[in-house]
Amino acid sequence: MQFADRLNRFGAEIFAALNQKKLELEAGGRKVYNMSVGTPDFVTPEHIRKALAEAAMDPENWKYSLRDIPELLDSVCRYYKKRYGVDIEPSQVMSCYGTQEGVGHLALALCNKGDIVLLPDPCYPVFQAGNFLAEAEPYYYPLTKENDFLPDVRSIPEDIARKAKYMIVSLPANPVGAIAKPGIYDEIVEWAKKYDVFIVHDNAYSDIIFDGIEGHSFLATPGALDIGAEFFSLSKSFDVTGARISFLIGRKDVVDAVRLLRSQIDFGMFLPIQKAAIAALDGPQEMVKEQCDDYQKRRDALCGGARKIGWNIPDTKGSMFVWAPIPEKYDSSMTFCMDLLNKAGVLCTPGASFGPHGEGYVRFALVLPPKQIEEALQAIKNAGVLG
Questions:
Q1: Which of 30, 106, 348, 351 could form a disulfide with 361 if both were Cys (CB 3.0 to 4.6 A apart)?
Q2: 58: helix, strand or coil
Q3: CA–CA separation, 380 vs 386, rounded Å?
């Protein structure tokens, strides 16, 4: 069997490889502090679980849904108005089985072979995967420490900008933890209008921003709905990662195009999951803020604790991730990552797996409580891997 050439563009899945190594160590009796994958360890709120369970008991809800039910679309619109101050219509909203699926379908709907797509470097690997599926050509714009790991549209060459189909922006950013500074979205909108580039914003972490700063939607920026859309995920805010609940929200013609493509692939989101999403969006929101406070305690435990043992990790500003520079004695993030795992039993992700500009860093997910983070740091100190 000769398989499709496009598969050659995908390397080995780093998270699966690291998990296999973790399982081997645990089988040998080693304790592993796993901070590699961003799967929240908080309990899904009871009212969301009840909504899904009750809906699942109705036999009618086990049929093809064929569409997003009007109640769900109305809930998204109400939420965006209340949470972000953005007015959207139901026709500007469609569900996705997680942003990962949505990004892939978006690329297939928008790009022809050879089209240029602007991607951040480093970035969440799925941004690249969607691009590869559509056989588009990526142009990576760097996120650098000198620019606070923020996108700089002024650095994109004019000839590339004029050819680009769309640009992915992600703030707060996975893996680097950067948050939007005042005026950056206005700058991006102005640039996008000048060069006719569609902007796709990944809005997964606007509820996980630290030090009293409030997260916003890119679509709240004047003119953003004319040139953009964003993926809005419930996974991290409401701890529903396994249910895969995300939405593409924005310019109607783009949403219609992705909806048309998706209609050829599936028959709509499982109705009990739609009911769970409604419960999340319309239900109490206090836990979202409380959870952000808990993430900040973990951030402080990891970043502050690391500095106490001689590892200068800056405080992450947002997202559930910490972007940590590797010690000077290492020249490879993978080598350092494996030393942390083998010698200290601490599992993180090598920065190089997020793109060339990720080399020199590792990413930690804030998925352990502060006490376990402190234990992990002590294990790192005892292992002597820092120098």
A1: 351
A2: coil
A3: 8
**pLDDT tens-digit map of 164-223:** 999 999 999 999 999 999 999 999 999 999 999 999 999 999 999 999 999 999 999 999
- Return the structure tokens found at 285: 């929101």
Whole-number Å distance between alpha carbons of 186 and 119? 19
Determine what percent of the chain is predicted with pLDDT higher than 70.
99
Spatial distance between the Cα atoms of 48 and 222, rounded to a whole number of angstroms = 33
CA distances from 108 to 160, 227, 355 (A): 20, 18, 22
The mean per-residue pLDDT over the stretch 80-106 comes to 96
Q: Is the pLDDT of residue 122 over 80?
A: yes
Type of residue found at 279: A
- Give yes or no for a contact between 149 and 323, defined as CB atoms under 8 angstroms apart: yes
- Residue for token pair 């409401």: 238
Angle at 154 between CA 150 and CA 155, to 5 degrees: 80
- Token pair, residue 364, equals 């930690």
CA distance 158 to 77: 36
Residues 6+ apart with CB under 8 A from 220: 84, 85, 86, 185
C-alpha angle 224-240-260 in degrees, rounded to nearest 5: 50
- Cα–Cα distances (Å) from 90 to 31, 51, 95, 126, in that order, read 49, 22, 11, 27
Contact yes or no for 378/43 (Cβ under 8 A) = no
Nearest CA among 75, 38, 66, 29 for reference residue 278: 75
Beta strand pairing call for 198-203 and 164-170: parallel
287-325 tens-digit pLDDT: 999 999 999 999 999 999 999 999 999 999 999 999 999
